[in-house]
């Protein structure tokens, strides 16, 4: 491993615009190199198994499990994006190839959007079960879940399709290239970035946080009452309603974990958004979701 006090010209370019110490930069860099393979390997295996489990014959009869299966599939796709990011860090410049550049950026947007809004769907369904159990049997159905998932996929696929022609390989010098926005489409990419911030950051966080607070408050109130498993009210519920009630705690844990773990990355995204708007000196893709969107990572 090279001395962390020595900086090459390429390393300086990797973190221009960020006032960080070289020691901290190299610590983060090499930590990522050695830990990221573990993260995306576990992520790929875990999400693949989760996807198969949630789509098994007995599990796919509940709408929440369809959302969880779709979330597993989306997370699996983003772990593949992380794989390409890691390959770039170990000097396998596949991200610099035309086609791969646009595809990786495109799918990072799509998977980030789907992951966030599938969490919103899970939280909304949990809210309906918690506060409107009698209506949950009508609204929380497998058929409706398939429609919602299909619309989310269609919307994300169409919305971010512009990345295929607004993104490309830009050469800044003979030995420095980067996969980034094309200068002639800078204004369109700013619109994309703004809309992506609204749809994958502002709205999901407001909706999810508000519903989680409401659900937690209701659960605290219910904790003071007789346990639902022993109450006459619970025994009068239908089989479908009982299934929905049993899964609420799991859904709440998933939504709460998403908010807590995504907080730092969302703060970082806002930081990059503000820096980009203020400085406007270097074209860049914003980082989104609970992973990086490969902005300014891939240089040679």
Explain the overall architecture.
This protein is mostly helical and 300 residues long. The protein is 70% helix and 4% strand. It is built from ten helices and two strands. The protein has a two-stranded antiparallel sheet with strand order 1-2. A hairpin with a 2-residue loop joins strand 1 and strand 2. Helix 4 runs antiparallel to helix 5 and helix 4 packs antiparallel against helix 6. The protein starts with 8 loop residues before the first helix and ends in a 21-residue tail after the last helix. The N terminus and C terminus are likely disordered.
Unreliable residue stretches: 1-18, 281-300
| Helix count from the secondary structure assignment | 10
Strand tally is 2
| Helix coverage percent | over 70%
Category from helices, strands and their pairing: mainly alpha
SSE topology string: HHHHHHHEEHHH
What Rg is obtained from the alpha carbons, in whole angstroms? Answer: 22 Å
| Main sheet overview | 2 strands, antiparallel
**What's the mean pLDDT score?**
76
Strand order of the largest sheet: 1-2
Sequence-ordered SSE layout with sheet pairings:
Layout: H1 9-14, H2 22-54, H3 63-89, H4 100-131, H5 133-139, H6 142-159, H7 163-166, E1 167-173, E2 176-181, H8 186-223, H9 232-235, H10 239-279
List keywords for this structure.
300 residues, mainly alpha, two-stranded antiparallel ribbon, 10 helices, disordered N terminus, disordered C terminus
């Amino acid at each position: 491993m090279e001395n962390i006090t020595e900086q090459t010209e390429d390393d300086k370019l990797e973190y221009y615009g960020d006032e960080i110490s070289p020691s901290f930069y190299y610590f983060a860099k090499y930590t990522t190199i050695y830990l990221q393979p573990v993260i995306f390997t576990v992520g790929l295996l875990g999400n693949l198994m989760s996807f198969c489990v949630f789509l098994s014959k007995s599990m796919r009869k509940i709408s929440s499990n369809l959302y969880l299966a779709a979330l597993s599939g989306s997370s699996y796709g983003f772990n593949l994006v992380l794989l390409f990011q890691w390959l770039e860090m170990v000097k396998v410049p596949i991200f610099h190839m035309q086609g791969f550049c646009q595809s990786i950026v495109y799918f990072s947007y799509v998977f980030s959007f789907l992951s966030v809004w599938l969490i919103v769907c899970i939280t909304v369904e949990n809210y309906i079960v918690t506060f409107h159990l009698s209506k949950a049997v009508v609204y929380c159905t497998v058929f409706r879940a398939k429609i919602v998932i299909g619309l989310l996929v269609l919307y994300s696929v169409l919305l971010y399709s512009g990345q295929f022609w607004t993104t490309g390989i830009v050469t800044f010098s003979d030995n420095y290239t980067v996969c980034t926005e094309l200068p002639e489409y800078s204004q369109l990419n700013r619109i994309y970035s703004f809309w992506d911030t609204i749809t994958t950051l502002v709205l999901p966080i407001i909706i999810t946080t508000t519903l989680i607070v409401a659900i937690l408050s209701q659960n605290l109130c219910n904790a003071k009452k007789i346990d639902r498993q022993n109450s006459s009210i619970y025994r009068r519920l239908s089989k479908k309603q009982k299934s929905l009630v049993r899964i609420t705690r799991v859904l709440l844990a998933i939504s709460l974990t998403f908010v807590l773990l995504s907080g730092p990355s969302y703060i970082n995204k806002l930081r990059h958004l503000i820096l980009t708007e203020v400085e406007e000196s270097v074209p860049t893709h914003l980082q989104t979701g609970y992973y990086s969107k490969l902005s300014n990572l891939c240089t040679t």
